[in-house]
Amino acid sequence: MRDYELMVVMHPTISDDEMPGALDQIAGYIMSRGGTIQEYQLEVPWGRRRLAYPINDQTEGFYTLFRYQAEPNIAAEIDRELRLNENVLRFLVTRPQADKPEEVELEEAEPEVAEVEASV
Question: Domains along the chain?
Fold first, then answer.
């Protein structure tokens, strides 16, 4: 299982009462294929926001971030379901970066710098 993040921009005409059901439907796409939802953020810092540019004549959207674990082979199936969902304006699936960046070996770079300085 791999970790994924799914950012979904929902249609702004969905009422606040209907939003949990629409988000549960998206979570269902993931869980029905063996994935597990770790969390999804509805409010801060996302929520209802103005779009940078109009999408299908809409100027606002409801942003939600899902964090989940799933097998890599189900990504295409989830992608298909999200494209067919009329409530979804845009979405993006990414894999989060590792916690620690790779360490750069500075010891090897320092002698080269010393040689350049000595030649100047």
Answer: 2-119 (3.30.70.60)
